[in-house]
Structure formats: structure tokens, C-alpha cells
Design goal:
5 strands
Length: 188
């Protein structure tokens, strides 16, 4: 078990070549809170190399703004279209290069692992992930983004927080449903 840290900032990224999502959480002791989430909109760039440059510039800017201690990034899943996979891998690599240029440690998580950590179901929809994050991090409806890529980035960061280890408690939980029933005041 990892001991609680005084403060840690985690940047989570959901890589994309059209819309890239990101989320930033701050851990104080053992309590996570959302600091920011948003998207990097790449739709207006027709050239893939211009998109890559924009990803590097924006991720570097996000790093400079929030000074994360660690980066959690969703690993590309294997699709049927090789060209799409190649472009997505490049986008992920450029985001990782921005973090590496600032000596920020990187951890990759499979989409299934992120969904499982957040909802308890590896096949959960983007909407289910967003809904669970909204409740766990007490995010108001007004703060919820239009693009779910932002909540996917936040989910990567929150998954990383959960992997850091949690303090042992006297209450054991068998599932999210069990956690919610025993902690109604922590989930809205």
C-alpha cells in the first residue's frame, strides 16, 4: 500500500486525432478532486502533421498550467483500420513526448482497465463512466463537458489515482453498489 501523499496532481489523457480529451485531478492526502477537464479540438486541421504539432503545443501548455506530477494515458485499443491505429498511436506518442520533455512519469492504461476501475464494468459506456465520475468527484451538471473525450481523460487520471493504493479501512466493499449503500453521503 502506498502511503497518502500531501499533494499530487495527475493529468489524464484520452488520445485522439479529431478530439483529444484531458482531465486533471489533485490528490490531497487521500482525497481526489477535479481541477480541470477539457478537449483539444483538432477538427479544423486537415493535415495530420499539423494535428500532431497542435497536440504537442496544447499538452505542453496544459502541463505548464497545472504542473502535473504524473501522466495517465489511455492506450490505443486494436482496431481493424491500420491507418487509424497508426494515426492514433502517433497522437498518443506526441502527447507522451510532451510529458517526457518535462520529466513527467507516464503510465498507460487499457480502456477496459479504466472502465473497470471507474464503474466496475469493463464494457461500460462513455455515459456510464461520465456519470460515475460526476458522482464520485462531485462535479456539477454545469461543469460536465459536451464531449465525453474530456471525461475519458479524467477517467484515466482517476484510474491512476485508484491504482496508487488506498488506505485500508475498517469497512470492506464488495462492489460499487456496496460502497454506495454504505456511503450515501459521498455519492450524489
Amino acid at each position: 500500500m502506498i502511503q497518502p501523499v500531501k499533494e499530487k496532481i495527475i493529468l489524464g489523457i484520452d488520445p485522439g486525432t479529431t478530439i483529444m480529451g484531458y482531465g486533471v485531478i489533485k490528490i490531497t492526502g487521500t482525497k481526489p478532486e477535479m481541477v480541470a477537464m477539457g478537449i483539444i479540438d483538432l477538427r479544423k486541421y486537415g493535415n495530420h502533421y499539423l494535428k500532431l504539432r497542435r497536440i504537442f503545443e496544447r499538452v505542453t501548455g496544459i502541463i505548464e498550467s497545472y504542473l502535473p506530477d504524473e501522466l495517465a494515458i489511455e492506450a490505443p485499443f486494436f482496431g481493424k483500420n491500420v491507418q487509424s491505429m497508426l494515426k492514433l498511436g502517433r497522437a498518443q506518442g506526441v502527447a507522451m513526448a510532451a510529458a517526457l520533455s518535462r520529466d513527467i512519469p507516464i503510465t498507460e492504461y487499457a480502456p477496459l482497465k479504466i472502465k473497470m476501475a471507474i464503474t466496475g464494468n469493463g464494457q461500460a459506456s462513455k455515459e456510464q463512466v461520465a456519470d460515475m465520475l460526476q458522482r464520485m468527484l462531485r462535479i456539477s451538471k454545469e461543469e460536465m463537458p459536451v464531449f465525453m473525450d474530456a471525461t475519458d481523460g479524467l477517467a484515466a487520471a482517476y484510474c491512476h489515482f485508484l491504482q496508487m493504493g488506498r488506505p485500508t479501512t475498517e469497512k470492506g466493499y464488495n462492489s460499487w453498489k456496496d460502497f454506495i449503500s454504505k456511503n450515501p453521503n459521498r455519492v450524489k
